[in-house]
Amino acid sequence: MGLTSETTVYVMAGLAAVCVALLVWWWPRFARQGLWQVLGRLVALGTTQVVIIAAFACWLNSSYQFFGSWGELFGRVETAPVEVTQAGDLGGTGTVNGVAVKGALVQPATDEQLKRVSGLPTGPAAVNGRVEAVKVVGRRTGVVDPAFVYLPPQYFQKAYQRQRFPVIVALSGYPGSIFNLAQHLRVSQTAGALQKSGQMQPTVMVMIRPTIAPPRDTECVDVPGGPQTETFLAKDLPDALKSAYRVGHDASAWGVMGYSSGGSCALQLTMRDPHVYTTAAALSPDYKVKDDPTTGNLFGNGPDRTERINGHDLMWRLKHLPAPQVSVLVAESKHGERGYPQTQAFIKAVKAPMRVVSILPEHGSHNFPTWVQEMPPALKWMNQQLTFPQDVVPRHHRKGTVVAEPSKPGHDPLRADGPEPTPTATRSRP
User: Fold this and answer.
1) How far apart are the C-alpha atoms of 65 and 88, rounded to whole Å?
2) Element housing 171 (H / E)
3) How far apart, in whole angstroms, are the C-alpha atoms of residue 111 and residue 59?
4) pTM above 0.70, yes or no
5) With b meaning 16 or more CB within 10 Å and e meaning fewer, what string describes 120-143?
């Protein structure tokens, strides 16, 4: 039985019901005086409570897909085959869900989670687009991380057969999963609707989790002697996607977004690696990475520990280092979320050439309903920042003729539509 299967949930629920029934049935026997009777009561109560909690945890994990397998739950993660992780050449051929791709850094994956997501495009891919379940192989780190990739309809249309596309990488929070991004944040569904209505240019959306060594929360840090999360997201992931899909090769076509700790990671990646990602949207982020029981020691104990900590403190970076030439969006509710003062401080600290805009609803909580409301204006704003790649697929890679660059929609993403929160442009201080 898989950890996320409904069978596991039903079995655990049935086991909990049996434990409760046995507790009620045997309780009179434990009511007598004596050491063994007291120990019996403690064991019976403890066992019943543990089973009930385990059943609830299984149901919660099945609903939100925090951990995808028993191996992940107990810290056993997949690693890349030696011949793949040590490969320096991105050549070769492979297939992802039947579509020919270059290289072996993006591989087909089971679509068990994908089948449970509602609202995904169906029918002809050239009309509605498609979402693929894949595994991304880290050439440098050896990490193998699951991902969903949304390809817009234009990706499959003959007129665009040699055109590359901009990319937005969407990161989940901790201990979130790509299922949360697809089902609860509705990344591909929202992007598809915006693109279909002309409010967003055709864009490849990549849903991936920054938790590359579950159950440990590595944030967006290259841990000394441990998981190399930043290297995977800033180097391995872009290389893998460029090897497998027709996506832009210039940083101006790449953006990253996320919610909660995924939003923190999006800011970290953009400000620390502006040559990879030039645009970020962070929904309810933190602005400093700290050690806690879920992260363990992220920065090591060597003489450079303080330097590492400061390097992942975005307020420290804004104060002591030159501002990167990037654009970021931060979202935080004025009432209902604890990070509003920190978000205001971050906005005020930003200086040119960095640019910042904000979504600041009056009310909201640290949850999916709030982030779903913020998604459309965030994506439309990112659309305005990202450039549609000028480069095309070389003629010897794909038959066809060079087509004119598609015109970018004239919609202004900073204008609110209906009840959506409006990103507020904030002037950078010179």
Assistant:
1) 33
2) strand 167-171
3) 20
4) yes
5) bbeeebeeebbbbbbbbbbbebbb
